[in-house]
Design a protein that fits this description.
The chain is an alpha/beta fold. It has 18 helices and 27 strands. Strand 23, helix 16 and strand 24 form a beta-alpha-beta unit. Bound molecules: fructose -6-phosphate.
Amino acid sequence: MCGIVGAVASRPVQEILLEGLRRLEYRGYDSAGVALQTEKGIQRCRRTGKVQALADALHDQPLQGKTGIAHTRWATHGVPNEANAHPHMSADQLAVVHNGIIENFEELKQELQAQGYEFSSDTDTEVIAHLLARELNKVSSLHTAVANIIGQLEGAYALGVIEKSDPSQLVTARKGSPLVIGVGMGENFIASDQLALLQVTDRFMFLEDGDVATLTAEQIIVTDINGAKAERKVSQFEHGVSAADKGEYKHFMLKEIYEQPEVISACLEGRISGDKLLEQCFGARAASIFDQVKQVQIIACGTSFHAGLIAKYWIEELVGIPCMVEVASEYRYRTVVIPQGTLFLTISQSGETADTLAALREVQSRVLASLVICNVPGSSLVRESDLALMTNAGPEIGVASTKAFTTQLTALMLTTIALGRRHNLDAQTEATIISALRKLPQQVEQALAMDADIEQMAGAFAEKHHTLFLGRGTLYPVAKEGALKLKEISYIHAECYPAGELKHGPLALVDKDMPVVAVAPQNDMLDKLKANLQEVRARGGELFVFAGSDRVQAEEGTYVLTMPECEEIMQPVLYTIPLQLLSYHVAVLKGTDVDQPRNLAKSVTVE
Ligand code: F6R
């Protein structure tokens, strides 16, 4: 999704802005631009394609200035071209960058056009530039102008604005879209996330919805939704700066896959003691809320949704209460029945996914309480939920989610224990699960050691156009996640079915050109799954099986990789690892952009 960077300093800021944009590249975008306050007024430069194209243009014709804004655009209104790229200007008076969607932009545009404002793009953002110019005919302060016009904007926005008459200031505002202020020494910044600014500061201020802030090099003045002066806390970035670098790895995705033993440990740290969960990790209010929970409604998107599907198995089996799971984009728009005592559980890496956030806002007043499992402290979902359990995975830069998923599962198991204690889960079972969780980082390490074999296996997929993933029980959502990973980074069509559904239709697809991947650990479903795999072999399908015992035998057309031992309850985490590695190696063989796959964005902050 779109990324914003802005800076106001007593040194030239062009390179700071460009570096910020590079650090936001992982969010996904199709054009980039900057605008700076220069001696000749506001000057801008925009390019389609990569930030490097913008950097090359600025290398040839640098912009000198100490205040500026920059943007990476992910097209929503209007195709990705230079005219639609941000910043947008109103004549040469002011420049705006925007993340979000202005839903009433058509009406506003017609009104402004009727008053003589000329539009040079198809974007919703350009209306903001002209609205501000119109407002500045009435008020003299840019801060007041921004505060006055945001009431007319329906939808979501994070804004950065500079205005020609005062080169020493940058005004920002947000509602529903992410934006942080980076607090420097004699310089201040804005960005869509903290990672973009780690090169210049590690202290951040988070704005509330409806806030407007004016930044100069020396100070930050914030007003709230009612126009009153507001104090916003400054906090220190929690993870090491190196968390945002690739280090020795070729791609962020590979680095993040390999970080999983460490981050699963980080997710457990301080939350378990001896053979018990420390329930206080959910916050002071958690115990009294959990006491009243009668069912759980899980809402999430994409990979996070798959984590929710696994949690459903755990909650219904170990807690013994109903658990529903649905994708946020459907749930938010349908009439939903919410039974009494519903815990509304959202799962999100970014904490900013528009559909998930909208679903929460839609039902917040009708549920017992909301809990978010999230990776980004200070994100909207964390701020707006009653309870939050952070996954502690550290920054995830690769667009394809990996370590976020396995830490979500870890956090969901802790949630299952907390709820289970009040229902079907006895102390003995709790101790068994805690012991299984403790062993997990080492077992994941062992699964990572299979990398070379998986890399070799990847060769069988690189030339194929379609694949089928199969699993049963908790391993069905794991297979779904494996299929999602493969399609998003290698662009190979990957379908996934619960193996028992094969004969109800998908078997018709199976032939020698459609490799079939199966996750087949030792559990109660293994015999059933093996029968399903026979159905595939009988139709000439080639099988690639990640198996937990020697009961799945390699033979012609059946390739088996044996997984490390692990407790049954933790199989979903462990069996995710080889599927992540498989999709990674297939994508590398195909030469795709692994960390920034086409058409995708890391943080989906618009609908
Ligand atoms: C897939 C992926 C996406 C996200 C989805 C939800 O690898 O990353 O499917 O899982 O966009 O994002 P979050 O978890 O940030 O709400």
